[in-house]
User: Fold these one by one.
Assistant:
Number 1:
Amino acid sequence: MEEIRALALVAYGQNMRKLRKIAYLTWGGSLSNETTFGKLISDHRKAKGWSQKQLAAMVAKEDGEFISPQYLNDIERDRRLPSSEVILALAELLDLSADYLQILAGRMPNDLVVGKLKEADVTRLMVAFRKKISK
C-alpha cells in the first residue's frame, strides 16, 4: 500500500481523475467524478453536525489566528484553497487523509516536496504508477 501511496503522490500533477482512482483504491471511500476539495470538507463537516462557524473556530492558520466562517464557506464552495497547514488541521478534525486532501487541492504533501527523490527514482515511480492506473 505504501508503494501505491508514493506513486499517487509523485504523480500529483498528471491527471486528477486518475489520481482520484488511485486515492480511492489506496484510502477507500466513495468517490464520484464530482468530488472536489470543498465538497469533501463540506460533507464531512455536516456529517459531524458542525456549522461552518463551529469548524472555523477550531482551525488555526499559520499565524495562530482562526479562519473565518466566510473563509471556510469559500473553501467549501471551491473558491479558495487553503494553505497546507489549514489542510492538515481540517484533515485531523474531519478524520480525513491529509495526503488525499493535499492531492484534491492539487498539491504535493510537504514531506515529499523538498527534493527527496532523485530523477531516476521519479522516473521509475512514474512508470510503475502509469502501469498501475492503466489496469
Number 2:
Amino acid sequence: MIWKRVSKRIRLIRLKRSYSMAELAALFKVHIRTVQVWHKDGMKPGDESVRPLLFQGYEVRRYLKNRVRSGRCRLANDEFKCPRCRRTTKSRDADITFKITGLRMGKSDQQVIVKGICIVCGCRLTRFETTNSIKKLFWWPKFQEAHKELYGSPESSLETDLKEEKKQNEH
C-alpha cells in the first residue's frame, strides 16, 4: 500500500529543489527508515560526504518512478497477481467468481471484479475488468453463463411473457 501513496505524491517533488531524508519522509508520509532504505537501494544524494544527506528532486523522482514501475507486470488473459507470492499466478476455474459492481467505466462499460484463489499459496486474488474487456479474457464463456441476464438467454423474461400470452389467447 505504501507504493500507492508514494506514486500519488511523486508529482509533489520539485525537480530543482534538494530534500533531506526527514523532508522526504514527511512529504510521502512514511517513516524515515523507509527513506534510508531507498538510499541504500540506489537513490543517490547530491554529495555523499556532506551531512545531512541532500537528495535532488529529479533524482528522487527518477528513483521512485522506477521503483513503482518495477512492481507492475503484464497479466496474461487467465492470470492474477498474488499479493502474498508477489508474482503472477492462476486460479482454478472452479474458484473464479464474477461480480458486476454497477460502477460506470466510460459510456457503456461497467466494472467487473474477478475473484479467485491462488493455486500456489491459497491467497484470495482480485482482478478488475470491464464488461467489454472481459470478452477478450479466458473466462468469457464462464462469465456469460454466470450473467445471462446481461447478455440474453434463449429464455429471456420478455419471451416468456409472450409465450404465456399466446397460450392464453389459444384457450
Number 3:
Amino acid sequence: MEFFLIISTVFFFLDPGAMSYMGRMQAPTAAYVSIGIAAGVYIAMYVLRAIGLLKMAKNAGKPNLAWCAFVPVATSYLVGELAGDMRFGKSVIKKCGIYLAAAEFLLTVSLALQYIPTLYGYIVDKIYLVPSESGIIYTVGHEITWVADVANIGYTLANIFQWIYVIVAVFVYIAFFKRYVPGGYFMLGLCNVLMVWLPALVLVPQIAIFAVRNREAIDFDAYMRARMEEMQRRRQPYGGMQGGTPGAQPQPPRSPDDPFGDFPDPRGGGDPFAGSGTQQNGDGKNDGGDQG
C-alpha cells in the first residue's frame, strides 16, 4: 500500500505525462525515475518498520509472529496483536489485526489497479497530454484503451476502501501507540492514518516504531492512574511540591509548647502568676492587692 501512496506523491512533482508534454523528460524515463524514487523511500520505510516490529514482537512474547514484520499486509496483523484487545464501552473486540490487514489488502489491490496500468502506459509511451477546449487532458493510445478502464476502476475502488482502512486504522494504531508512546500516541496514530491522503507522512510512524522498539508495552489505564495519583500528591498542602515528604499525609496543627513548662509551680497550681499581687475580682476588674 505504502509504495503506491509514495508513487502518487512522486507523480505530483514528476508526472511523466506532464514532463513529456513540456519537453523536459521522456515519459518512459520519468516513469522509471518515479519508480526508483518511490522504491528507495519504500525500502527505507520497510527496513525501519521491520526492525522495529520484529523487536517488539519478541519483547511482547510473540516470537511466532516475528515473520509478520517482514511481510506487507501481515505487518498490520502484527500491529493489531501488539495493540491488544479493543474496548468500546462494555464490548471487547479481539484480533483487531485481522480487520486492519483485510482493510489494507483491499486498499492495496485497488491502488495497484490504479497505478500499475498507469505506469505501464507511461513506460510504453502511450499516455499523452493533449490540449482541448476544456484545457489539457490525458488521453490513452487506442492500442491500450484497457489501461484507462482498469485505472478508473482502481480509482473508484480506492476511494471506497480508503475510508474503510482509515476507520479501522485510526482505532488500531492509536491503541498500538498508547502502549508504547503514551505521551504522543494520538499524533502518531493520526499520522499513520493521514498518510492515505498525505503520503509525505509515511515515514513518521515508521521512524517512531523503530525508535521505541526496545520499550516494553505498558497498561495505558494504569499509566493514566499513576499520573493522576502523582498530580494529586503534588497538590497536597504538606507534601510533594511544597517541601514535605512526597506522598505524606497532612497532619493536624499542633498546639504551641508551654513556655513555662520547665519552671515548677511551688504552690502546685498551673498558673505561673498565681503568686503575683494582681488579682481579678468577680466582675473581672483587677484588685490592687498590696499597694502600700
Number 4:
Amino acid sequence: MTLSFAVKCARHACYQSNIFFALYLYAMHINMLELRHYRSFIAVAEELHFGRAAQRLHMAQPPLSQQIQAMERLLGGALFNRTRRKVELTETGRLLLEEARKVLAQADKAEQLTLRAVRGEAGRLEIGFTGSLPFNTVMPTLIRRFRRAWPDIQLTLVEMPTARQAEALLDGRIDIGFLRPSVAVAIPGLDMRLVERERLTFVCNAEHPLAACPSLSVADLAKEEFIFLPRHIGTGLYDKVMGLAHAAGFVPTIAVEAHQMSTIVSMAAIGLGVSIVPDAMRRVQVDGVAFRPLVDAGAFIDLFVAARSANTAPVVANFMAMPPD
C-alpha cells in the first residue's frame, strides 16, 4: 500500500465518519505502533493527567509525552486536547481507547497461553491406541488422570494398529501412542514405558467342549481353528500367540481373519472358531461366549505408552511422566 493511497483511503473513511478505520488504514502503512505505545496511551487516557500517568507507568513525564506525540504523528491525528488546566480525549482518542484495551487484553492472553504451553498446561495431544484398549482400564485411567491435572489440553484419540502408531509417532502425526509391540521388533527413535503386563485369555462359544474346563494351556488348543487378526493389524499379539503356539509344538490353523478385537469375540460366540485375546476383552458383552484363563507362564502381552524421543514438548513430557496407577 503506497502512502498516497493510504491517505486517500483514510480521507474517504473520515468522510464516512469512520475515524478509527481511517487510523487503521494509516497504521497499516506505518506498522510501527508497539504495545508500549498502547500502554502509555491508556494510562494517560484513564488518568487524564500526564504526571499521574507517568507515575503509574514508573517513568518520567517527558518520555511519556514524547511517546504520545509519536503516536499522534504516526496516526496523523490528535488523541488528546491539552490545555494548562486539563487533558481531554479527542473523538479519535475515545475510539482508540476502546481498541487499545482490546489489543492489550489479547496480548496478555497470548502471553499467558504461551507461558502455560511452555509449562505443558495448554496445547493439544494426538493419542493413538490399539483396538482392544477401550476395554482395558489402563488407558482410560491415565487419560482421565491427565485430564484432571491439565484440563485445558485438547485431546484427540485415534485408533490405529501398533505398526501404524510407530510410523505416526516417528513422523510427528501423533504425540502419544498406546501400543503392543512385538518382542522381536525394536522401535528406534521412540521412548517407551511399560504400563501393564496383561494376561491372555482363551475365548470360545459357551457350548464348546473346552468351555467346560476351568483353565487351559496353549497346548490344549492345538487342534482348534482360530479366529485372528492379520499380522499387519495386530503385530504384537499375532507374534505373541504364534510364539506360544510354537513353544507348545503346533502352528495355529487360522480359519477366519477379523480386523477388530470385538469382532473376534462376537465370531467366537457364534462358533466360527476360537481365539486368544487380551484379558480386557472379557468386558465385551456378547451372549453365548466363554472366556477361560491360560495357565502358560508366557501367556501375557505388554502394553507400552510411547512418544518420539525427539519430541521435547512439555505437554508430552507431562503425559509420559504420569504413573500408570
